[in-house]
Amino acid sequence: MSEQKKSPAEQEKIGVYVCHCGSNIAGTIDVQEVAEWIEGNPNVVVSRNYEFMCSSTGQELIENDIKEKGLTRIVVASCSPHMHEKTFREATERGGLNPFLYEMANIREHGSWATNDKQAATIKAKALVNAAVERVVHHAPLEKIPVEINPKTLIVGGGIAGITAALELAEAGHHVYLVEREGTIGGHMAQIDKTFPTLDCSACILTPKMVDVGQNDNITLLSYSEVESVDGYIGNFNITVRKKARCVIDELCTSCGICEEKCPIKVVDEDYGAGITYRKAIYRSFPQAVPGFPVLDKENCTYFQTGKCKVCEKVCPTEAIDYEQEDEWIKFDVGNIILATGYDLFDARKIPQYGYGRLANVFSSLEFERMVNASGPTGGHIVLRDGETEPEKIAIVHCVGSRDQNYNEYCSKVCCMYSLKFAHLVHEHLPGAEVYNYYIDMRTPGKGYEEFYHRLLNEGTHFIRGRVAEITDADRQPGEEGKLIVQAENTLLGLQQRNAVDMVILSAGMEARHDADEVSKLFKMGCDYDGFFNERHPKLAPVATMTDGVFIAGTCQGPKDIPETVAQGGAAASQVAKLINQGTVMMEPVRASIREDECSGCRICNNLCPYNAIEFDEEKEVSRVITALCQGCGTCVAACPSGVIDGAHFTNTQVLAELEGILWDVQSDVTAKQEVL
User: Fold this and answer.
1) How far apart are CA 675 and CA 658, in angstroms?
2) What integer pLDDT is reported at residue 669 of this predicted model?
3) Nearest in space to 585 (alpha carbons), one of 254, 151, 157, 173
4) According to DSSP H, which parts of 182-315 are helical?
5) Contact 6, 12 (CB under 8 A)
6) Contact status, residue 285 vs residue 272, Cβ threshold 8 Å
7) Which of 434, 432, 497, 502 shows the shortest CA–CA distance to 462?
8) For residue 247, which of 221, 296, 355, 391 is within the disulfide window of CB 3.0 to 4.6 Å?
């Protein structure tokens, strides 16, 4: 190692700890060589390598060395800070040092996992460790910022995840605002007939919980509403909700249903009815809707289009119809937010070769759910589009829009199982009908799921392994006239097969909501490559986000079935309840600050801050940071033309020292050449 640059900070006593991480790091990086090499740095007084630094023994090494050797700075070279930065900060603090006098070098993700070249990985590890050592010299002790937590919570989305989270918090004694954009809570689960693998009635499970939400005094239900703006920070969010006009006075409506019954206008129900049934211009999505008040659809109401009709007003016994009702904006404050906004079902029209929307008897999975439901348009009878003919042969196509490089590469997790459920329901409703399941791989990774698959085998369902290439009505062979032809490769037999059937059900996968990106910006969080909301850590923090105080639950985070969704709803509620019970949380002190005596008042930072954390003092004509709102992103630091904004823990001195440290091998080459010259 080259001679280190002398500086006043040489009196710092740095301890360096290089982790083996089992073989994750040590299998590629020579950790002993790295530990011995960094001892050449004049500020390093102790350098160790240990198999698992995150273990209690590894942490005790740090604590004991601080106390016994008088260490003033700590560097741990191991894995991602997302995983263990908090772990080693706490160990540093237990040893008697300020936790921000610690720095982490990620030699796993950035070193051993980035290459199989051991020499290159070891050299890079040295660079990363050296960078951390040079940086930590310039660290300053920081104190976390205490913030009081408003005990009220906002939950966005009234599906099973949002319902679960709301009830968990409400029953713990905390007030919840539950915002749902539709006229009723329930979400996608309310559209489902049976749940796999137990075949419990979905409504029987969901309806009592919906009623509990409507009756709980700790829940303010804002249905037919949308969040318009979100300001503030963890513990103190300012929320504005637009409550859309139902044209129905809630206090007067008794949910008698007379207005809906007498309304002369029928509209195709594209939402709850999946487009295969009708609703009225004034309607409830389903009889068990919560709240039970109807919604007047202004776009299809005769009165709003022509100024005539008013049948619903005339027949209402309580005079609850109000055509003049306008949208209402409701403002309130909360301490935490849970997003449970759900998913969109993949639109099978995107795959033209499957014929959905063109071939009459190709049904989407949601259409079949509504058809087979006893409260559906056919009373639970499985029939073709003509409404009368019962199919004798039905094909069910798995993974429509999932596990497909042309659409969504990920597995939607539920398609296989609900396809098996469909097959069982066909056997139940149409004894003697033949059912063909076309699958890529059968995935049954849940409790009782594999047993359910074997049940279907015994029921006589035909399983064909292979992706369907085309669904057509072009007959080529005798017996194909008037049928749908499913063209697919049977990969187990190695044969191309044509199968003439009466009905095809496309088991569409889940995908992120179409407005997920817009919602993520509203709540100042991120989306992943597939459009789902990003969690803080997929293993250690699956319901937390990078924005403190904002949590996610259910299918807005990624595809999952009902049990997982319920579990995440409960987990998100638990995280929020923990913060509420604490009363005060300590925010990271990584915040920006402005040297007001040097500020030119250009206001560039005011316009760029994504968190609205910078205000302008009109009297002094300078900008200042609202510390509580600042998230330490650094946008203002980089943009300031005067260079008068400092980012705590990411100062120019620290960053430049880190860069200088990581370029040690380049510097060594330059020095060697200079000596030769």
Assistant:
1) 25
2) 54
3) 151
4) 202-215, 258-262, 302-306, 311-315
5) no
6) yes
7) 434
8) 296
C-alpha span between 208 and 536 (Å, rounded): 33
* For range 548-556, the mean pLDDT: 96
249: burial class by Cβ within 10 Å (0-12, 13-18, 19+)? middle
pLDDT of residue 668: 57
Distance CA 652, CA 157 (A): 43
Distance CA 589, CA 632 (A): 8
Tell me, what DSSP letter sits at residue 149?
Answer: P
Average pLDDT over residues 375-379: 86
* Percent of the chain predicted with pLDDT > 70: 97
Identify the band that residue 232 occupies on the pLDDT scale cut at 50, 70 and 90.
Answer: confident
What is the layout of strands, in order, in the sheet containing 225-233?
225-233, 236-243, 328-334
Backbone angles phi, psi at 213, to 5 degrees: -60, -45
Nearest 5°: CA angle at 28, between 25 and 30? 85
Which residues lie below 8 Å from residue 310, measured CB to CB, with a gap of 6+? Answer: 303, 321, 323
pLDDT band at 261 (very low <50, low <70, confident <90, very high): very high
Contact criterion met (CB below 8 Å) for 468 and 429: no
Q: Which residues of 356-371 are buried (b: 16+ CB within 10 A; e: fewer)?
A: beeeebbbbbbbbbbb
Q: Is 307 left (phi over 0), alpha (psi -120 to 50) or beta?
A: left
Q: What average pLDDT does this structure show over 88-117?
A: 95
- Neighbour count for residue 3 (Cβ, 10 Å): 9
- In whole angstroms, what is the distance from residue 632 CA to residue 622 CA? 20
pTM exceeds 0.85, yes or no: yes
Going through 152-193 in order, the beta strands assigned E by DSSP cover 153-156, 176-179
Torsion angle (degrees, nearest 10) of CA 664, 669, 671, 673: -170
**What is the pLDDT confidence band of residue 11, given thresholds at 50, 70 and 90?**
confident
pLDDT for the residue numbered 371: 93
Q: Which residues contact 518 (CB under 8 A, 6 or more apart)?
A: none
Mean pLDDT, residues 604-616 taken together: 88
Residue among 42, 131, 82, 23 nearest 657 (CA): 131
pLDDT single digits (tens) 299-346: 999 999 999 999 999 999 999 999 999 999 999 999 999 999 999 999
**What domains lie within the chain, and their CATH numbers?**
8-142 (3.40.50), 153-188+195-336 (no CATH), 344-511 (3.50.50.60), 592-648 (3.30.70.20)
SS3 state at 572? helix
